[in-house]
Amino acid sequence: MEIFELDAKNHTPYIKLDHTTGIMELKGRSTPENSVEFYDPVNKWLIQFINEAVTIPVIVKLKFEYFNTSSSKCILDVLKKFAEFKKTGADVKVEWYYEQDDDDMKEAAEDYSDIVKIPFEIIEIPED
Amino acid sequence: MSQSAMIDYLALYEKMHENNIMLTFKGEVSVDLVNSVLKIIEDRLDRIEEDRKTRKKVYNILVECLQNLCNHIDSTDFEVTGYDSKTALLIIETDMKGYSVVTGNYVPKDKVEGLKTRIDEINSISKDELRALYKRTLNNGQFSEKGGGGLGFIDIARKSGQKLKYTFQKVNEEIEFFSLQIDIPKGDKEEE
Hints:
The complex is a heterodimer. By secondary structure, chain A is an alpha/beta fold.
């Protein structure tokens, strides 16, 4: 399989899913008008990743500036895929970064950590 | 257009100025329009709003409101006699206290009760209950065709920290006009 990499656009995040390092990164904005369509290749890649039974510790790094509600369901779907991967005995953790004072984003991270059975580390990025 | 039929545009402009209107739009709502409006407002916010938190909230809420509107218009399959059923109203205002986003669109009469019930429920519950409702809705596995799945109003209410103001006005026997006003206070000013 190949590393999945997608450049950030105005309404979509930078994504890099790397099965060789175990670092899975999504950062920037996720406000596409059709989120289901946008996240479809991500899900397909993750299904393949799980099926290939790669044994590598995975760190999911999420650094969203914004996301819309239609993305929020897709992000949950992505996290559920990693939870599925964790069930295979793999080591998985989520690092969720939010900008200082962005309480909405911090709450969002907490909400996801309540729903998904993966250890979460919620990290504040200091204002520069 | 003859001279006598001219509208008093200065009066209209002044009225908009008095109401602190940042942007107003009446017409067909498309994905391109939504993206253009978001770009304009984002640039404006970068210049006029110092508080990053408020900037983010306004932008976020605007994304939700506009995409809601766009999805609604997209699924519009009714005709409003004498009107253009695909058009909608958008107003963005700002004053010392904060920002307001207003949307207006036609809704078939049989959808009105459902919408009212939904918004009234969101307006009647506490901040913590709203958060719990958001989590339940997020996790219920239901997706609309494009992803939404009923989170829009809850998210807007959570982020604004305010009640959602709305009215339904009768247009004809089948159609009502739905106006929704979202107030977003500046900084940490919560509702009294």
